[in-house]
Design brief:
There is one protein chain. By secondary structure, the protein is an alpha+beta fold. The chain is 29% helix and 28% strand. The chain has helices spanning 34-38, 56-69, 77-89, 127-132, 147-150, 164-175, 219-230, 242-247, 275-286, and strands at residues 2-9, 19-22, 41-49, 52-53, 98-105, 115-122, 134-140, 180-184, 197-202, 205-208, 234-237, 250-255, 259-266, 269-270. Strands 7, 8, 9, 10, 11, 12, 13 and 14 form an eight-stranded mixed sheet that branches. It has a six-stranded antiparallel sheet with strand order 2-1-6-5-3-4. Helix 7 (219-230) packs across helix 9. The longest helix is centred in the first third of the chain and has 14 residues, at 56-69. It binds pyridoxal-5'-phosphate. Pyridoxal-5'-phosphate binds next to helix 7 and strand 12.
Length: 290
Amino acid sequence: MTPLSLFVLDLSAEGAGRLTRHDPAEPVIPVTDLGVTRGDGIFETIAVRGGVLQALGPHLDRFERSAAMLDLPVPNRAHWTEAIEAAAAAIPEDPRPGAVKFVMTRGIEGGSHPTGWALGFLADDPSGERAGGIKVVTLDRGYRHDVAQTSPWLLQGAKSLAYAVNKAAGREAARHGADDVIFVSSDDYVLEGPSSTVIARFGDIAVTPPVELGILPGTTQADAFTALEAHGVTTLIKNLSPADLVEADALWLCSSTRGAAPIRELDGAARTVDAAWTELMNTDLDARRR
Ligand code: PLP
């Protein structure tokens, strides 16, 4: 990640959404901010390609959904859009995808309002993994498939700042010689990656698991499905088991800056990389508008 631009959004009643520009290399957030001390907050990362903020609306929708799940104030869409656009405007043309990460924390401990900012940066180039594929292991997330209904306080399906677990899963994957993870529920439902959505191909049908399992609604998966449907593919939102993953003709992990990355190995077994569907999805994903 190469940080480029930082805009802090004043979310106090008096601040009324005022934006201030800062140097992203300078310390800006107080050490008593609950986002820093507790991971208590939410975020989104939007890809910026050719100066266009991709799927801004769906990202703002998901930000709003996460805010509701964490009992944070309803984000003011106009204020956030202004902050996100300001951060995006500073991203130059580059072979790497640009991105804006925007964050709302619960604010300073004992304070009266949330903290907000939008950071523009250059993300990692996904072309290697799109072409060559990725090695993935399945890991037990340790919750049942109905955790979002039985225990909503566990915030499964919210894009909260508390990603230490997601990062630890990535290190566990590396210990297995893999690049990434597909989480599975304790009762054997396929969930999502630590920062991505699963797509599986069965013949000319594309399948992704439902958000009721306590996973994020993937903005990239949604647009990838639109692209596939335009080419005559049937898309389904449906439960999958680990055995279904073994049976699938091809598998992908998708997310905003990465696009669709084909899986070339799952739990140590070689998998067919479907170059045609990978190309089809990424061509449309790279050309997305807001
Ligand atoms: N699931 C999780 C847990 C994520 O963190 C992400 C993105 O970071 C996704 C899915 C994919 O979401 P999107 O396609 O909107 O980037």
